């Protein structure tokens, strides 16, 4: 007899097979449509358009027409030169207006196509324009931003071809920070209370039911004024709620099972074993330290994983927490001439993989609203389809490096990517996206009027800083010289939920309960309860609890602490 589990497994296998067949059918249909179009073109004597081939045959005219869409009145980031027929058109350049960078962007492409160097060049120009940048340095190969690059004849010739006749090596102001104390940069932290239940659930890999339970646990701690500063504080609260003494409190929360609370507790223990305890705590990162300008140049803050290598999801989730903090603290400024700050999310797929609906909804809301605070967000990933559609629709600038289309799923992703670009008569985008060379990309951005610019096959400019890592020793030495090291270098462990609950338990065990007495013999005799209440540890706990109503924690976006 077939069990329900076997039926469910068979249904899943059937669904997966159906999805794969649908993807293969769609890819085959798209290929057939392209083949039919090419046959029709050959029959009419026109010939099919080739990647980078001008339909009108006049490459220079086509390139100049494209470049006309990238002429702006205000300051802009220089991307590179327009290519048609496989050659750069002299004087035809692509750019991104600084005033539209708070409309966000996407840099995508397969591994080894030049995404990192593109991000490096963007960060350099933003810094030169006085705009601070926060970048996720997943692989540690962006540290070269702090050091001037190396001049070569090939590099000078490429730069001149792309209109960058003044290319010269240059370094930029960089702060190296690490998540927690186990890295080579300045350690940065967040408190559990500030991080909130939605973001923490993403890090712990909780399902929707467990995420909801964690939210109720946070609510109970908030109501009782129990500060959750580090992992041991949250463990202490969950341990209390699942203990005999906390049974009434757990029942009072409503809808929380002891089994689910136990699952969350085990997830916390695993996170702690993987080094998460070095990230959650104090002193907490002040988002104002990310908005600094030094000598007219925006400071580039490079964030590396540190001891959190086993939890890469913590990386992108931390950056989203910083965005939520900025959303709360920065004033509304509308559309400034240049952004106050630009966030660059490398390996953005980690942010969305396995995310709950509540988390995704909050990401969409943050991306939509943070632009009015003057903050721009650039997502970087291999496939545009890694980004959920509600987020993708908010990204105004698109820099697409080469895609690979080796499988039916890849073909389907390629077809979807082509459909997101404005129509072009100059390029066959389906072929172009798989034919781009290293350091080349298909580009379209928002103009100063908010309209998309023409699609441009672009050879991108080279960075002026060092294109490689400067080494762990050099990074660590720079971090120790940073003024931020004095502020964040040492961990602070002040009284919080763990200490308060431990004192309560200690006090309750300090005196055994006296047997009931029918009558007190005199005014100076005290009951066991009165003696417990006189205990200094209990008095300390009650003082904390008595002010709970006055300092109950309220929450904002992502369930983060409201400032």
From TrEMBL:
<dbReference type="InterPro" id="IPR027417">
    <property type="entry name" value="P-loop_NTPase"/>
</dbReference>
<feature type="domain" description="Helicase HerA-like C-terminal">
    <location>
        <begin position="94"/>
        <end position="560"/>
    </location>
</feature>
<feature type="region of interest" description="Disordered">
    <location>
        <begin position="506"/>
        <end position="534"/>
    </location>
</feature>
<feature type="region of interest" description="Disordered">
    <location>
        <begin position="22"/>
        <end position="58"/>
    </location>
</feature>
<feature type="compositionally biased region" description="Low complexity">
    <location>
        <begin position="42"/>
        <end position="58"/>
    </location>
</feature>
<protein>
    <submittedName>
        <fullName>DUF853 family protein</fullName>
    </submittedName>
</protein>
<dbReference type="InterPro" id="IPR051162">
    <property type="entry name" value="T4SS_component"/>
</dbReference>
<feature type="compositionally biased region" description="Basic and acidic residues">
    <location>
        <begin position="31"/>
        <end position="41"/>
    </location>
</feature>
<feature type="compositionally biased region" description="Basic and acidic residues">
    <location>
        <begin position="521"/>
        <end position="533"/>
    </location>
</feature>
<dbReference type="InterPro" id="IPR033186">
    <property type="entry name" value="HerA_C"/>
</dbReference>
<dbReference type="Pfam" id="PF05872">
    <property type="entry name" value="HerA_C"/>
</dbReference>
